[in-house]
Amino acid sequence: MESPELQLAYALDTFYFLISGALVMWMAAGFSMLEAGLVRAKNTAEILTKNVALFAIASIMYMLIGYGIMYPAGGNGIIPEISWSFMFLDAANDHSVEAVLGSDGDTYYSGLSDFFFQVVFVATAMSIVSGAVAERMKLWAFLLFAVVMTGFIYPVQGYWKWGGGWLDGIGFNDFAGSGLVHLCGASAALAGVILLGARKGKYGKDGSINAIPGANLPLATLGTFILWLGWFGFNGGSQLVVSSIENANAVAGVFVNTNMAASGGLVFGLITARLLFGKADLTMALNGALAGLVAITAEPLTPTPLAATLIGGVGGVIVVFAIVTLDKLRIDDPVGAISVHGVVGMWGLMAVPITNTDASFAAQAIGLGSILAWVFITSFIVWLLIKLIMGIRVSEEEEYEGVDVGECGLEAYPEFVGTRGAS
Questions:
Q1: Average of pLDDT values for 189-215?
Q2: In this predicted structure, what is the pLDDT of residue 384?
Q3: Closest CA to 295 of 331, 334, 324, 266
């Protein structure tokens, strides 16, 4: 490859990587709007604070230690061999012109573009936790957990596959993170929810389940569309390069399959809700679309568009039953995050061999189990330590009045609740 051609390919792939990362970063806005729409008005400002703060914490922690753990100098496959030269982005200094040209095309994109693309995935995993523990968790307990999650828990299991660790060695497949991102976030959320307990009034002593409607379904719908858009960067960017005919075709296929899976998830989820509840439940439709997206994320390249639609559709059916089942188990998840990202993330991992003949169900099951076990156990320990040190749940009075006032000292919709102190 001539040097001008090589330089153009390097620039194009770097630019594509950065734009894909920016799309994934925009998913933070999607999670914020979705969660703000599905919680009660009195808890809106606090959940927005969590979402914007966790993104900043994820960026800092992944820069300091997370990236070096996930992409180390070496390791034994399970434990990464940490090199301090890989911390603080020292190993991600951009390649010189001479280094790129001397690599004969093996250096595809800027090192810092790789960091940027990876860090927004970390924030996505942590965003999943936010919605599941909404309306009753202490803000600073959540942010403290975010430090450990994004700096250590997520990077270790990320290393097992994407950093060349033992899961990669056994042939485990997870193209863009049905397991490494979505199941990871849901497992951490489940551990937190178990220790945290349900919201007051959610479950009656007689076994009844009381619906607690969200405050702003238009906002939740907007959040879903933002996530749907961002997912094109999430899955499409995971092809990593776009500067050849083969890779450009692959990216186009990933985009189409991502969209079809979301569509299948929404339609199948909506139909399932109609059959179960007798109504077209908007929240189930929204979660169905997200479930379809999660389901296809493990392998968006090999399915045909029809197969992608069906894989997403199965995810849409699964998520409705998962939400109902978790409620019966008295596991209170205000936004359905554990069902969407955890239960359907499992389906996405196990669906890979259906269309990818290089994958095996055994390797997928091992990867699923190891991610679930590692993240749940370590998260449970961290949540428990935080609970013992500072507590993780707000007081009953704060929960009744809303965590906006207790934790943030302001209200997202002050005109709806009157003016405090007015005569």
A1: 95
A2: 98
A3: 266
Confidence of residue 323 (pLDDT cuts 50, 70, 90): very high
Q: Cα(338)–Cα(331) distance, rounded to whole angstroms?
A: 10
Single out the residue of 44, 39, 53, 123 nearest to residue 332, CA to CA.
39
Gyration radius from the chain CA atoms? 21
Average pLDDT, the chain: 93
Tokens of 25: 């970063």
Read off φ and ψ for residue 81, nearest 5 degrees: -85, 100
Q: What is the residue type of 12?
A: L
Task: Judge whether 155 and 162 are in contact, CB under 8 Å.
Answer: no
Taking residue 85's Cβ as centre, other Cβ atoms within 10 Å add up to 10
Mean pLDDT within 112-126: 95
Query: In the chain, what are the helix, strand and coil shares in percent, each to the nearest 5?
Result: 75, 0, 25
Residue 42: burial class (beta carbons within 10 Å; 0-12, 13-18, 19+): buried
- pTM, two decimals, is 0.94
Closest Cα partner for 397 from 252, 200, 105, 107? Answer: 200
What CA–CA distance (Å, rounded) separates 38 from 147?
25
Just give the CATH number of 3-417.
1.10.3430.10
Of the candidates 186, 174, 184, the residue with the CA atom closest to the CA atom of residue 337: 186
Q: Which three-class secondary structure string do you get for the chain? A: CCHHHHHHHHHHHHHHHHHHHHHHHHHHHHHHHHHHHHCCHHHHHHHHHHHHHHHHHHHHHHHHHHHHHHCCCEECCCCEECCHHHHHHHHHCCCCHHHHHHCCCCCCCCHHHHHHHHHHHHHHHHHHHHHHCCCCECHHHHHHHHHHHHHHHHHHHHHHHCCCCHHHHCCCCCCCCHHHHHHHHHHHHHHHHHHHCCCCCCECCCCCECCCCCCCHHHHHHHHHHHHHHHHHHHHHHHCCCCCHHHHHHHHHHHHHHHHHHHHHHHHHHHHHHHHHCCCCHHHHHHHHHHHHHHHHCCCCCCCHHHHHHHHHHHHHHHHHHHHHHHHCCCCCCCCHHHHHHHHHHHHHHHHHHHCCCCCHHHHHHHHHHHHHHHHHHHHHHHHHHHHHCCCECCHHHHHHCHHHHHHCCCCCHHHHCCCCCC
Identity at 333, one-letter amino acid code: D
The domain ranges of the chain are 3-417
Facing residues of 393 across strands? 137
Distance separating alpha carbons of residues 279 and 272, to the nearest angstrom: 10
